[in-house]
Predict the structure.
Amino acid sequence: MPSKDTGTEQLIKETAKRILFAEGRLHATTQDIADAAGVNRAALHYYFRSRDQLIDTVFQEAMQALSQRLATAMKSPQPFREKIQELIEVFLIDMGTYPYQETFMVTQLNTVGHQLIEHIQIDPVKSFMAEIEQEMVNGTLEPMNPIHFLMNLFSLLSYPLIMAPLYGQFFGLSESAFKELMNERKGLIIRVLFKS
């Protein structure tokens, strides 16, 4: 049996990521993805037996990549406030590149289940929660369950991105105006999370 062309396989995955995460075409068919990649559907099925297998592969790789970037920021030796700023930056850069990735992830988790996130790195989160607790003891953060702090952080980041199309229409924001608003949001999130 001939070996698979990993270049073609990678092209299909990158095309699927672009269509799903950057363009927001969450219901794209294998034919849509094959056409956009410039391959025939038989070639796509050679590498990925079904749309579900392709979607699962793309989802897993996206989650692993984001998890790795967030874990690196959490394990960073810099002071806590700068670490939070880095987490915000990492998240917003990722979401700026793939604005529909969050929507896709939530959809997949609700459709397929939690087994999709078994590979997420937990150890950096546990040690990061200990840092959050210490910052509360130091008085730089309001006392609360550290889980609330992380939920607040990621909600302040995710929700506006998930709702971007609605906000754009509701507030009459162009794409560039929304990006500018998200850049302003970096400082706003820090001011919301930290005591002055």
